[in-house]
From TrEMBL:
Domain of life according to the entry: Eukaryota
Matches recorded under Pfam families: SIR2
MF annotations from Gene Ontology: histone deacetylase activity, NAD-dependent; metal ion binding; NAD+ binding
Active-site residues, record numbering mapped to chain: 69
Domain Deacetylase sirtuin-type per the UniProt entry, residue ranges: 1-229
Protein name: NAD-dependent protein deacylase Sirt4 isoform X2
Biological source species: Drosophila mauritiana
InterPro entries, alphabetized: DHS-like_NAD/FAD-binding_dom, NAD-dep_sirtuin_deacylases, Sirtuin, Sirtuin_cat_small_dom_sf, Ssirtuin_cat_dom
Keywords on record: Metal-binding, NAD, Transferase, Zinc
Alphabetized SUPFAM superfamilies for the sequence: DHS-like NAD/FAD-binding domain (SSF52467)
Length: 229
């Protein structure tokens, strides 16, 4: 993995991550996130398995959440078990890189980050306070493998479920597609809501081609209208 091998790659990654963190961490859940949290409270959903690293499901109130690809809210050491909260890590990065006080100006209107090369080259990253190792977000990068205990945990959830609801994913990444395969191996139903084609359309018992926000939150409206009639 280039992040591990190259100091220049780590500097570029952390510089961009530092600039983008305030906006990323301030993002709030949408109506679908809140709907799923409500489904869990009503015991209609056993758990949420997400490929995203933004913790929006947790922010919305979901409690049983498995983050397949980890979380951007935790920073870990590559050499020992040290962990640190990403907000706390942001403060450390800010103290080490006072030249980045104008960081908000580096975010373009399209949301991308444009940092001058000299800023990246001079960006300082702290070492692990316990062993001096390199630090990275607790995220499964492209080319990495999802930790086996997490894979087994999801498989156990599928085994104890009544079926699978896929929301807003093309399932092109195997870690998501594998959950569909496990569900069908158990002869359980699969429903998919996604605005475009998915890798598992041929396996779905129900496929709705729509935005999740146009479908999932409205289920409560439907239930309320039925109750009132």
């Amino acid at each position: 993995m280039e992040f591990v091998k190259s100091s220049a790659v780590r500097k570029r990654y952390w510089a961009r991550n530092f600039v983008g963190w305030p906006k990323f961490s301030a993002t709030q859940p949408n109506a679908t996130h809140h709907a799923l949290a409500r489904f869990e409270r009503e015991e209609r959903v056993q758990a949420v398995v997400t490929q995203n690293v933004d913790r929006l499901h947790t922010k919305a109130g979901s409690r049983n959440v498995v983050e397949v690809h980890g979380s951007g809210y935790v920073v870990k050491c590559l050499s020992c078990e040290y962990r640190i909260d990403r907000h706390e890590f942001q403060s450390i990065l800010a103290s080490l890189n006072p030249a980045f006080k104008d960081a908000p100006d580096m975010i373009r209107p399209d949301g991308d980050v444009e940092i001058p090369l000299e800023y990246i080259e001079n960006f300082r990253i702290p070492e692990c306070t316990q062993c001096g190792g390199d630090l990275k977000p607790e995220i499964v990068f492209f080319g990495d493998s999802v930790p086996r205990p997490r894979v087994d945990q999801i498989a156990g959830m599928v085994y104890n479920s009544d079926g699978l609801l896929v929301l807003g994913s093309s399932l092109l990444v195997f870690s998501g597609y594998r959950v569909v395969l496990q569900t069908k191996d158990l002869k359980l139903p699969v429903a998919i809501v996604n605005i475009g084609e998915t890798r598992a359309d041929h396996l779905a018992d129900i496929k709705i081609s729509a935005k999740c926000g146009d479908v999932i939150p409205k289920l409560f409206d439907f239930r309320n209208s039925k109750s009132a009639s």
